[in-house]
Amino acid sequence: MVRRMSNLSMAQLLFPEIDKTPEDYEKMYPARNLPEGAKVTRFAPSPTGFLHFGSLFAAFISAKTAGNDGVFYLRIEDTDKKREVENGVIGMVNGLKDFGLVPDEGAMSETEESGEYGPYTQSRRTAIYQAYVKSLVEQGLAYPCFMTEQEIADVRAGQEKEKELPGIYGKYAKYRDISVEDAKARIENGDEYVVRLKSPGKPDGRISYKDEVKGKIEMPENILDIVLLKKDGTPTYHFAHAIDDHLMHTTHVTRGDEWLSSVPIHLQLFRVLGFKAPKYAHIAPIMKEDAETGGKRKLSKRKDPEAAVSYYSEMGYPKGAVNEYLMTIANSNYEDWRRANKTESIDKFEFKLSKMSKAGALFDLVKLHDISKTYISTMTADEVYNDVCDWSAQYDSELNELVTRDTEYAKKIFSIERGNKKPRKDIGKWSEVKDYIAYFYDELFDGARGWADNIDKADIKTVLERYLEIYDHNGTADAWFPQVQELAVELGFAKTPKEYKNDPDSYKGHVGDVAGIIRVAVTGRLNTPDLYTIMQTLGESKVKERITDAVKGL
């Protein structure tokens, strides 16, 4: 009874302004009304810089874990104000939104939130944390610690010398049993203090738990008297996340495996607080092959521009393509599923945490680009046009002016060889569009022509002059190539590549060379989509103008 009264007095001494209890907050944050088995997940970044690709991956995993029946929310862990950057929250929100990750609830900007379980920003929840710490002090499970930074440094130096576990625990926790009178005197004297947990862990204790990605893990039990509240009254990450995940009814925590070593602390906190712990899924970092060492390393903010999520927006990778790539590195069976379900929404795929790589996926920008080419090839002309307009409005004003000047003309360009069984894969990102469509616009067409070097310039000129004479803009697609074949034969070229291959000395080339000459004259390029459709899109006068200019250039 005396100890109980002493604990109550200590709690009141430390938290005289806190009048709410944990029971009050339990009522304020009731259980969510969700279907049986629904998952609640969160992405909980610190607003300390740009959104990293690894963070996007973690958010993607959290969102996919929640699925359609659960809740995916955004919580801002901003207790470290020294590292916070201006507009860090809106940067995170927009970075997620750019790739289709829109949380069901949570922080929406520095000042706006949506949802019934907020505040979703930790710096606005200080009173909640303090109420739970006050309760722990009342139960004799936490205490004020007045150790100075120098005292702590001296303790750790001694522990290092004796090769002991570093930290404040056992005989090193000098204020574990401080009296109310002593604490009051020190506070009145202006001494600074933190509030520590009285860890119930034993030196030889062990814990085991099932990680949703890594499987069963066994680790030493936590014996450290960790800090719950810092000197300014704000919580540490360890404590705040436990309170928040409980009150927000988080069922699954997906996070980087650098947090794996903290699991004993976190599980202990949940147990001491009387909470049911969420399921943890620790994700291995995304790795990259290091050209310098030949080994593998983490994506680096300093070395790799692709480490920033903004890179993908600036380059113009569609969000759907990035999500396709993220899923290929998230679940090893996704690519087989996609091959068997070419037109299905990615949301139909059954994502499983247990299918994630324990060792970490290897980042491959080339693979992302290939996936993006395939993804863009399946889009309609209208979808491509709309995405190009949106992207260019922000990143390429010249391109935006051109494609919006004549919408129907631009859509005709994007519809070429689109929607058939084997669509072309010329575009991998929107920043490639300007080059792809350059020959359709005089402002972008520089007049340079890369002629094939196997045909004499005189023969090239003859082909173009003769083609100008027979060119029929009103001819059908079926009639176009036979006409080119006739021209080829007339000018000493083989009617087919096979004929030329069988007797190359008898011909100047074959029909493909003749078509290539026309292609270069009109577009400046040896390789393009269907030439007939290109010429129909450009219009008769423009085609004749291009060929005439090409002849002059020869």
Characteristic key phrases:
single chain; 13 strands; alpha/beta; Glutamyl-tRNA Synthetase, domain 3; 554 residues; 23 helices; Rossmann fold; 44% helix
Provide a concise account of the structure shown.
With 554 residues, this protein is an alpha/beta fold. The protein has 23 helices and 13 strands.
Q: Would you write up a description of this structure?
A:
There is one protein chain. With 554 residues, the protein is α/β, with parallel strands linked by helices. Among the domains are: 31-124, Rossmann fold, CATH 3.40.50; 127-249, Glutamyl-tRNA Synthetase, domain 3; 381-440, no CATH class; 457-553, Orthogonal Bundle (Arc Repressor Mutant, subunit A). The protein contains 23 helices and 13 strands. It has helices at 2-14, 22-28, 53-66, 88-97, 126-138, 149-161, 180-188, 237-247, 263-273, 309-315, 319-330, 334-340, 365-377, 381-395, 397-405, 407-415, 433-436, 457-470, 477-490, 497-502, 511-523, 531-538, 540-553; strands at residues 40-43, 71-74, 105-107, 113-114, 142-145, 194-197, 206-211, 215-220, 227-229, 252-256, 279-283, 287-289, 296-298. The strands form five sheets. A four-stranded mixed beta sheet has the order 1-2-3-4, covered by helices on one side. The chain has a three-stranded antiparallel beta sheet with strand order 5-6-9. Helix 18 (457-470) packs across helix 21, helix 18 runs antiparallel to helix 23 (540-553) and helix 21 crosses helix 23 (540-553).
